[in-house]
Design brief:
The complex is a heterotetramer, with 2 copies of chain A and 2 copies of chain B. By secondary structure, chain A is of the alpha/beta class. Chain A has helices at 12-16, 43-55, 66-85, 100-115, 134-143, 163-167, 188-197, 217-220, 245-250, 285-301, 303-325, 353-362, 375-381, 397-414, and strands spanning 5-6, 9-10, 31-32, 94-97, 121-125, 146-150, 170-176, 201-205, 224-228, 239-243, 261-265, 268-271, 329-332, 343-348, 365-366, 368-370, 386-390. In chain A, a hairpin with a 2-residue loop joins strand 11 (261-265) and strand 12 (268-271). The longest helix of chain A is centred in the last third of the chain and has 23 residues, at 303-325. Classes of the chains: A alpha/beta, B alpha+beta. Bound molecules: pyridoxal-5'-phosphate (2 copies).
């Protein structure tokens, strides 16, 4: 364990050995810089799922026989691990969904429909991912709510200059803990306190936060927290919604079906207890077990070390790109590596991000190009799209150098 | 694997064959509470009559279920008759503690999983039982913890009784 | 391929070799009879997912780089395979969800809210799984709908004696294609024709049907068809909703977020095309690929052979149990093996199903005990629960014999 | 892996550098249609002026996007000017056919996957093109099919034009 971390920093060579995607020799070698879209998976995660399927798969919470009992035990143990990882008060507060998007829709459908009325104010931010915008746009349309947005400053921070006015009369405040475009870490606690003072409930989209920083729901002050397995070394097909128990208890169910009921009659039903009340149908069993293993790996690395590694790498990347390309390469978002995550969205010499990404791919460098599911933010930044390089535990300075080198070929082809 | 003899002790089968305090009471004056085991469909109805001192004057049980839920209900009915509400709560606490898995276990990869599992699987933090409380016959149910799925069967009657209190 | 099938019947020894769960020596040996709850997975399915994660995982529909393109290609190829497998007119009609339960909730939320009004009649059957009951109970409560139920006959068939009256005025008819308790195959086509004549839309819960019979959505006459991956050799975390394209086109979206939009502004959004309009957020990518591989395995076995195998085994089981236990063992549902699936729910000598399952487990025999998420049907049958043995491609007559033998030990312990 | 030279042909880069028919037209009389590429955020606006004979009298394009979507739009604008609506549709059909992947491919396990993928990824069945239709410059875009994600870039202008017709 100790060998993974040298001077508080991850030993990337050793970390990389945990990730089978690096096993295959590739020419050019893989320079994967798109973990903000989805991370790769360590062996431990794939093995946990595989072992489950090969030895003890059965539907959970239903069978009396030993194999089903073992399946249930592994599934619920994963929930307990996730609960501990984010500092939840109990496993009852941890709901498994299919992704962060479903988690946020669950809040909108269940808490939203039960508590919001025509004319009520919902406050979001201009840097939300579509996952924390569209559910509220849909609900606003159906219930006739009023939407208000917290803006962003020119250096890419959340504008909290007049929170009190902005949150006045709000019933719900939704914000991202870390922007998937700008990397900005938002002052969740400050907004949550102001929101609570205004009588609002606070929904935090932590999809980019939980994979990269120590998370403590109590310290963040949130009421709901959504995140997604595939961005934190876990499999696809699983997300999490954490919610305060008292709120979850009072909420009506969302999806109806097996597992979430305690009794069903032809004319009605009664709900099961938390967390199962919100888990209709066969849950993502193997996926939960995989997520549990992912949490185990992140704990083994240590979230402080994960964060320190990213700050160091981000700082190196900002220096390198500025040194090489000066004003011709604009990185959107905060300049201070400590106030942001390892997500660098950039514009380069007027070359379209699509073309940048295509040319970089030829050098084995995988970056994302597009609106990153944040079209309103793109409009705010005055761009149609950006190229985005993002880092995780398996990236190192050589990856940054490869990116910087490959950008030269873009200029050759497109600068005229 | 734990053997069936851990689960199906003779005294349990006796309570299953000859359930004590089966029946119904008029409501009011009695209180009535219904419980379901969502896993298996077991249903239990508890009729509870408290006297003016807050003691369990009478208690009847109806519904249907497996040997564990039925025998647990039957033993419970014997144990709580004549008790004050506080005494019933203390018994409930002691029984829930009995139904709690304290060992941590290893999964197939040698990782520690689980840790403490709340008695009825609801994840409720288990309050510390009063050491003076004696469970009597109910102690025979301790083998149930080796079969975690059945814990909900054993605690169904108690959870339903708690609702009625 | 041919060697898998002898005289139109599966060679179970060879089939079983495809399933890693049988690799491990167990004492007593595994007699898995709970595939109606969830099936085991063949090597091909586990390998397809594993290979995907190890070589080419990346978020789909988002990246320009080759790895993301390959991920997208595998994901969409799986959709195309599923579409062909059920006879869909195009891949656009095949939506990936997290399970059959979400598929049915999607219809209720999207089609239901857009098309149903106070007082409208929804017709279901008394043998529905909670997944096709609770979504409608929830909706009926919210929109003030009237629910009506098709009953069942004493021999466990759907009562279609007066369909015209039963469906009169119905706006939506929901029915299972095969009961997960009784095994009953329902006359989907007949009900669909009558429902269409009455002006209703038809939602078929095919969770138990698609894994076991040749499925052709056009021949069934359905408008929507829901099923789930984990019961058909596929992974957990994935379900399917098939719908007629014209209906899906006209429906409002369900969950909001990334992928399902084509544009988002701070005050509204426009939807993406089918099928992505209904797939908000990162989809279950590896799971879709696993389901595609499962479909590949089922096609390799041949669905006719799968069905023939089950009819033969069911017939053997009914004969064996009747021969051994006579009236003391009651199998619920149709007596004719050709009119039912390989699902035997039974009551035995007054012993509680929980206790039966516990004792059978000691002999390695895994059967399900409980209400099987069909509590209204349990009430109709006059039982609190049943024990249920269910068959799939890897089961054989020796499994049935083991079940029959193990039942003897139940009698020893509980019959007095 | 296909090389960049398959994608970025000189004529494509020329249309990208010097887009033809950029601008706007007054609406009415012109028709206006907007298209989005949900993948990358590219937006295109097409202004279409049909004369009394149903011919494309004028066509202007605005919006922003990558080299492929911009050059495709530019080439399209040249190709359709002066055409009748039927001729435009025939060109569209021919172009979509060019953008369709006909080969079937093998996945990592040697299983055949895919088969035919609809031109713009929408899975639309591809109508058979009229062999008499000539695509001219547009044929240079055929390398795009080797980069399936970019097909949507190439077809964006055409799909938007179809809306305007
Ligand atoms: C008939 C039927 N419908 C629906 C379902 C629900 O499937 P899932 O739990 O995968 O959503 C099941 C299985 O549990 C079933 O047997
Ligand atoms: C900030 C943010 N929120 C939400 C999501 C949605 O996650 P998912 O697609 O897994 O639902 C993402 C990633 O796509 C994200 O970056």
């Amino acid at each position: 364990m100790a060998a993974l971390i040298v001077d508080d920093v991850l030993d990337v060579t050793r970390v990389r050995a945990d990730f089978p995607v690096y096993d295959r020799r590739r020419e050019p070698p893989l320079v994967f810089l798109d973990s903000a879209a989805s991370s790769h998976k360590p062996r431990a995660v794939l093995d946990a799922m595989d072992d489950y399927y090969r030895t003890t798969h059965a539907n959970v919470h239903r069978g009396v026989y030993a194999m089903a009992e073992e399946a249930t035990a592994r599934f619920e143990a994963a929930r307990a691990k996730v609960a501990r990882f984010i500092g939840a008060a109990s496993s009852r507060e941890v709901l498994f969904t299919k992704n962060a998007t479903e988690s946020l829709n669950l809040v909108a459908h269940s808490w939203g429909r039960a508590n919001l009325r025509r004319g009520d104010v919902v406050v979001l931010t201009e840097m939300e991912h579509h996952a924390n915008l569209v559910p509220w746009l849909l609900l606003a349309d159906q219930l006739d709510l009023r939407l208000r947005y917290l803006g962003i400053t020119d250096d890419g921070l959340l504008d909290t200059s007049d929170l009190e006015t902005a949150l006045d009369g709000a019933r719900l405040v939704g914000l991202t803990a870390m922007s998937n475009v700008l990397g900005t870490l938002t002052p969740v606690r400050q907004v949550a306190d102001a929101a609570h003072a205004a009588g609002a409930v606070v929904v935090v989209d932590a999809s980019q936060y939980v994979p990269h920083l120590v998370t403590d729901v109590a310290a963040l002050g949130a009421d709901f927290l959504a995140f997604t397995g595939h961005k934190m070394l876990g499999p696809t097909g699983i997300g999490v919604l954490w919610g305060r128990e008292a709120l979850l208890e009072a909420m009506p169910p969302f999806l109806g079906g097996g597992e979430m009921i305690s009794d069903v009659r032809l004319d009605g039903f009664t709900c099961n207890e938390l967390p199962w009340k919100f888990e209709a149908g066969t849950p993502p069993i193997a996926e939960a077990i995989g997520l549990g293993a992912a949490v185990g790996e992140l704990e083994r690395y240590g979230m402080e070390a994960v964060r320190a590694h990213e700050v160091a790498l981000t700082s190196y990347a900002l220096r390198t790109l500025a040194g090489r390309y000066g004003d011709e390469l604009v990185v959107h978002g905060p300049a201070d590596p400590c106030g942001r995550g390892g997500v660098l969205s950039f514009s380069f010499r007027g070359i379209h991000p699509h073309d940048i990404s295509q040319v970089l791919d030829q050098a084995g460098v995988c970056v994302r190009a597009g609106h990153h599911c944040a079209k309103p933010l793109m409009r705010r930044l005055g761009v149609g799209a950006t190229a985005r390089a993002s880092f995780y535990v398996y990236n190192d300075e050589a990856d940054v150098d490869a990116l910087a080198d490959a950008l030269d070929s873009c200029s050759e082809l497109f600068c005229f | 694997m734990a053997g069936l003899e851990d689960l199906y002790r003779e005294i349990i089968l006796d309570h299953y064959r000859n359930p004590r305090n089966r029946g119904e009471l008029d409501c009011p004056p009695a209180r009535r509470a219904e419980g379901f085991n969502p896993l298996c469909g077991d249903e239990i109805v508890i009729y509870l009559d408290l006297d003016d001192d807050g003691r369990v004057a009478d208690l009847k049980i109806s519904g249907q279920g497996c040997s564990i839920s039925q025998s647990s209900a039957s033993m419970m009915s014997q144990a709580v008759k004549g008790c004050t509400v506080e005494e019933v709560r203390a018994l409930n606490t002691a029984f829930k503690a009995l139904m709690t898995i304290h060992e941590s276990r290893l999964d197939g990869n040698g990782n520690e999983i689980g840790g403490e599992t709340g008695g009825d699987g609801s994840g409720t933090d288990t309050p510390v039982p009063d050491p003076r409380v004696s469970l009597g016959d109910l102690a025979a149910l301790q083998g149930v913890v080796k079969f975690p799925v059945r814990i909900k069967c054993a605690t169904l009657a108690w959870n339903t009784l708690t609702q009625a209190l």
